[in-house]
Amino acid sequence: MITYRNLNLAALLLTVAYDSISPVVAAEDGAAPVELDAPAPIDADAPKTTPGGDDISTVVDANSDSGTAETTTEATASETNQPEAGAPETADDAAAATTANDDKAIDNKPADDKAPATPSERFDKMYNNMAATHPQEAKKLKKEYHANQDKSAVLAKWSKTAIESQDMLDAVEELFAIYQVIKNIDGEVAADFEKKVEDEKDPRTMLEYAHQLLLKTLKDRKSQIEMAKAELESVSVILQYVDGEKAQQIADIERTAEDPRAQISEAYDLLEKTLEEAHKDVGLKPLQ
Q: Is the pTM higher than 0.90?
């Protein structure tokens, strides 16, 4: 009797145990139905994500590797700590940059900032100028310069004469430029002007006369050009009654020639020839 009861109790325990483990076995065998709308199981080890935030580079995907997040953070920090382009990183770099800029500024100084001429250079220029304008004084300067120990004192003594000599040479240069302009306009006037300059001891006294002569020559030239244009226009008007093509030819010369004075003779020759041909065509006697 006792044995039978023990067997029944053991069977009951086996039945209860089988009912508790049967769902697990069925799931492993694929026999249990799967609910499609059931929530996915939660991974307890996955990091929680925080929506929003100011820095998007710090938001890490739940499925991403933690090493990627660390790399992104380190790269952002590295970019933030880099110095600005062109800015010196240290005090030594700043000092080096300043020195380089100072050296560049020195190299870019204008050529006029040269060292003052030495006494020897000043003497050479002074003597050459005076030899051209004051030959006797130039000899005295040379003798005193080589005999005296104080070279600067000798140069200072002759400075007034040297300034006068330089002014005279400047005047000669200006007179020569005026002569070149007048020569291109009127060779006869230029020759007379040249002779007067050569006869004058102090060329500075000729500057006012030279300026007046230049203005007069320019006005005469302008007047001559206007007269030449008027003559060409008159020839063109006459030819219009005889030969329109030749009349247009003269009109083109009057309009485009830089110096119509050179075309006057040619225009009169053309007019004479055209009139003679016209008279011959109508039976008139040749022009006398």
A: no
